Amino acid sequence: MRTSLNEIEHIERHLSDRLPGEESLLMEARMCLDMELAQKVSLQEETYALVRQYGRKKLKAEIMLVEKKLFTSPGYAGFKQRILSLFG
């Protein structure tokens, strides 16, 4: 199990450009020779992309909730008018 975790960490460092130049070059060569490693790198990269996409969607939903609260609550009517006057 420890080897697997080390490999995941090494792949993560490769994907985030935190490997020194010679290690990065070695990793590229290993991926060319080892299709299983190349697939693991690709899957980890895809996983990171999905996590980023999920994070963006979650943040957008939170922003929309704040926007709704600011523009529909009577307590924020003055704020709403100031913002609308900037764009009106």
Describe it for me?
The structure is a single chain. With 88 residues, the chain is mainly alpha-helical. The protein has one domain (2-87). Helix content is 86%, strand content 0%. The protein is built from 4 helices and no strands. The protein has helices at 2-15, 21-33, 35-72, 77-87. Helix 1 (2-15) packs across helix 3 and helix 2 crosses helix 3 (35-72). The longest helix has 38 residues, at 35-72. The chain is rod-shaped and about 65 Å long. The mean pLDDT is 93.
Provide a short characterization of the protein structure.
With 88 residues, the chain is an all-alpha fold.
Any key phrases for this structure?
single chain, 88 residues, mainly alpha, 86% helix
Distance from N terminus to C terminus (CA atoms, Å) equals 61 Å
**Would you report the number of β strands?**
0
- Number of domain modules: 1
What gross morphology would you assign? rod-shaped
Structural class by sheet pairing and helices: mainly alpha
Q: In percent, how much strand structure appears in the residues?
A: under 5%
Gyration radius (Cα, Å) is 23 Å
Secondary-structure element string:
HHHH
Low-confidence stretches: none
Biggest β-sheet strands, sense, barrel? none
Fold blueprint:
Layout: H1 2-15, H2 21-33, H3 35-72, H4 77-87
